[in-house]
Every structure is written in structure tokens, then in C-alpha cells.
Amino acid sequence: FADRLKVHLREQGVPHDHIDAVFALGGGDDPVRLLARVEALGAFLNTDDGGNLLVAYKRAANIVRIEEKKDGKHYDSEVDEKLLELKEEKILHKELKSTAPTIAQALKDENFHEAMGQLAGLRKPVDDFFDQVTVNCEDEALRENRLRLLSEISSALDDVADFSKIEGRDK
């Protein structure tokens, strides 16, 4: 059934990577939910906030992946709030923490447009973080904490759709 729905969506002009990003989360037994999520994802990615957040997601995920491979460890543990020094990292962490329950509730309620709208609100703090914060600084504790913060960005977006499946868009 899921394969037929994927073919139907492709025939309707839905980009294959949007379909893959939604189907990667599972839940393939409810076509109405899948269609709603694919539609909301497409609408979100066609906004400036969505497109820019996708770029930031890929940047964060790539940095974390490279550093995890280099360091031989994962950075998916909790951020240590005491190690947040710069205003931009404090704001980003606060926004990620405050947005997570709202996104989770929107997803539970199957209000995918609301979940995407909450993600859009992360664009400015994510952009500010990348503009002002040096992740790979000399202080190892700060560096690791900042990598955990980047991992939180990826995690927040991956609750909505598997953004690693989405190809970059030329805007």
C-alpha cells in the first residue's frame, strides 16, 4: 500500500525527497496522515524560513557527523546549560526547549502545519547561532556542548520529518 501511495504522490508532482522524508518516520498505515504531513512539509519548504532552516539543518547535521566520526563519540546527550556562554547559544537552547513540547503536541494532534510553523520560528535563533558562535573552539568542554546543541537542532527537525532525506533547494 505504501508503495502505491508513493507512486501516486510522485504522479501528483510531489518531490520524491519530501515523500521519503515523511515515510522515513513510519506510520505508513494512515494515508490521510501521510498526505497531510507531505503537504505541510512541501508548504514549509517553499517558504524562506523553511528553505533556510533546511540549509541550517544540513550544516548542523554535517558538522555533528564529521566531528562524531573524528572524535569517535556521539553528541546526542543533553546540553549543559552552565556551559552556554554566548547570548546566541543561550537563546537557541531556550527556543529549542520551549518549542519542543509545542511541536510534540501539534504532531500528536496531527496539526502538521502548526508543527512546521513552530519550526519556522527557529530560523532566526539558528541563523544567529551560526553567525555568532564558533562551534569548534579551543575549549573542549564548550566545543562538545556546542556540538550537542547542534544535535538538538537536527533532532527537533527530525521529529517532524527526516530532513536528511531532503535535497537542497536553489532559491
List the helices and strands and how they pair.
Blueprint: H1 2-11, H2 16-23, H3 31-45, H4 48-71, H5 87-108, H6 112-120, H7 123-132, H8 140-158
How would you describe this structure in keywords?
single chain; 171 residues; mainly alpha; Isoleucyl-tRNA Synthetase, Domain 1; 8 helices; elongated
Structural features, described:
The protein has 171 residues and is an all-alpha fold. The chain has one domain (2-165): Isoleucyl-tRNA Synthetase, Domain 1. It has eight helices and no strands. It has helices spanning 2-11, 16-23, 31-45, 48-71, 87-108, 112-120, 123-132, 140-158. Helix 2 crosses helix 3 and helix 4 crosses helix 7. It is elongated, with a radius of gyration of 17 Å. The model has no long low-confidence stretch (mean pLDDT 91).
